[in-house]
Amino acid sequence: MEIKGGSLSAKSGQSLTLCGGTCSFIGGTVSSDTFALVSFGCAVTISDGTMSSGSSTSVYITSDGSINMTEGKIENTGSGVALNLHESAKAPTISGGNVTSAGGFGVFSAGKLTVADGAACTDNGNGSFTFTMAGGSVTVSTKFFKQSSSPFRDVADSAYYYDAVLWAVEQGVTNGTGAAAFSPEGGCTRVQIATFLYRHLSK
User: For the SLH domain, which residue ranges apply (predicted)?
Assistant: First the structure.
């Protein structure tokens, strides 16, 4: 499939849904208030044109789909995501063009995103990343990984005390030290130790 010009738009829902195969955008505009383009296993190439959404996600790549962008624009004019890469998507190639969001995330990735060719990449947390487009070509790649089953961001699945931490939480002995934090390297006061023992013996 090849789109050279014109426009596709939807008031709500998806303007264009691609399932498998390939699709090349050489011009034109695809826009929606929610999803402009959703790719399920399709290899998408953008060498010109604009993908635009006023909310939610402008371009969503999933199910082994891919995106190769050399020129053009992916934009979210609201507070949503311009380019959303699901964990089942392939690593993107962005060597030109612009990926922007007015108030949300330019690129949201389920994995670790890296930018080659000297461009600085900032991890904003929650899977979002920002980088400044260089004057020349830029290569963007992402590495997807299994999500940790640990309830705490500072307790790795591979930590020797992982099972003990899960046991303490499941038994109601402790809930950690804050939002998604356990502070495994921190110390315990006598009052905290007494509280842990009391909770355990009260079961």
Answer: 148-203
Q: How many residues does the chain have?
A: 203
Q: Are 55 and 34 in contact (CB under 8 A)?
A: yes
CB 58 within 8 A of CB 33: no
Do the beta carbons of residue 105 and residue 86 sit within 8 Å?
A: no
Among 103, 100, 102, 126, CA closest to 113: 126
CB of 41 closer than 8 Å to CB of 55: no
pTM above 0.70, yes or no: no
Identify the sign of the CA torsion 116, 119, 125, 127: negative
> What are the C-alpha distances in Å from 4 to residues 8, 24, 29?
12, 8, 10
Q: Which two tokens stand for residue 90?
A: 């392939």
